[in-house]
Amino acid sequence: MTHSSSPLASAHGMPIPETAIAAIDGGLRYRGYAIEDLVEKSNFAEVAFLVVRGDLPSHEQLADFQAILTEASILEPDLIAWIERIPLNAAAIDVLRTATSLIALAECHDEDSGPGAAWDTVQRLLAQLPVLVAARYRLVRGKKLVQPRDDLSFAANLLWLLTGREPSASAERACDALLILTAEHEFAPSTYAARVAASTRADFHSAVIAGLCAIKGIWHGGPGRQIIDILDAVARPEAAQSIVRAVLEQYERIPGFWHRVYRTSDPRAELLAPFCRKVAEETGREKMEQVASAVESAVWDAQQLLPSLDWPAARLLHYLDLDAELFVPIFVISRLVSWAAHYIEQQQSPQPIRPRGIYTGPPNRQFETLDERG
Q1: In what order do the strands lie in the sheet with 29-30?
Q2: Which end of the chain has the smaller Cβ count within 10 Å, N or C?
Q3: pLDDT digits (tens, 9 = 90+) for 170-186
Q4: Following CA atoms 290, 293, 297, 303 in sequence, which dihedral angle do they give, to the nearest 10 degrees?
Q5: Residues of 82-112 as b/e, b for ≥16 C-beta within 10 angstroms?
């Protein structure tokens, strides 16, 4: 079921949507599992299977899933050639969106909109998009491409593809945590866009492209670059109070603080922060962590706001020597599983999502001919 029969409704009279995928109130949970347990005890491959399929995988199911990820990770030469021809100033999210369209064309799918087709497609995209993102990232920097490795976890392989270096255990665990924490978050704008496409019985590639278009907006994809810029501008912990006050005199908020859903703290930020600190220590970035802590205190003093997930996520990517432009593409890679789960769930609805609007334009008007209008 995708719409509630509850008497609760929005101000416009629309039913409140229901979902069995994730819950936010009372603590973030995926399919009933506390996010804290998933981050501590699981990995992204298991969580991806859980979110899309509904249950944690068995040994056999996980092995099959990982085998498909390995088999499907080879990109067509024509797609790599296309990436090489893209202007260097093209946004990474635009490259990802168009590449997804090209992958859909290359597969010549029959536009099957069933759950099985969505699961097949999301497995292939989970295999291919990390390779594609890494290829674009490395080509822009004049670096040679590296091939995916079947001896690494999903998170470790992603870092290997991007950097050409096998990550440390701390870096791998931190990346795994980030992917898990960004995998699903109920009816986020991009997820809702994917559900609207799904409700029309469009194929899953089309729903992914709808999600990508929504995630490009600055209010959804995350202010990765701005967060690093503000930390660089502060530079010293003792400068945090004065700079934060000066920024808030011109802008409503500091990048990386406040979330539309959470009125107190973002549990995802709290869970990722220790991983971020560990990688900072390992890579000699303790000073930026000290600055970040001072900024957090200054923002709290000024506005009583706590960090969102974006705040530690942008720092973590920085400590892993990844440019902030990768925040959104990596977010997309993990959020693919959410779009797939919601796409499949939406198939249970017998009708498209079609909200009504409240008209606020001019009242009834009498038509005037062109001559009368002068």
Answers
A1: 22-23, 29-30, 33-34
A2: C
A3: 999 999 999 999 999 98
A4: 130
A5: ebeeeeeeeebbebbbbbbeebbeeeeeeee
Residue 257: phi, psi to the nearest 5? -125, 145
Q: What angle do CA 152, 191, 7 make, to 5 degrees?
A: 135
pLDDT tens profile 331-364: 999 999 999 999 999 988 888 898 888 999 999 9
- Residue 276 CA neighbour count, 13 Å, CB half: 23
Backbone angles phi, psi at 22, to 5 degrees: -145, 155
Q: What is the DSSP letter of 17?
A: B
Nearest-angstrom CA–CA distance, 131 and 202: 26
The H or E element that residue 34 is part of is strand 33-34
The whole-number average pLDDT for the span 147-159 is: 96
CB atoms within 10 A of CB 251: 9
Average of pLDDT values for 318-329?
A: 90
How many of the other CB atoms lie within 10 Å of CB of 8? 8
pLDDT at 220: 65
pLDDT in tens, 94-115: 999 999 999 988 776 555 556 6
- Among 339, 327, 332, residue whose Cα is nearest residue 129: 332
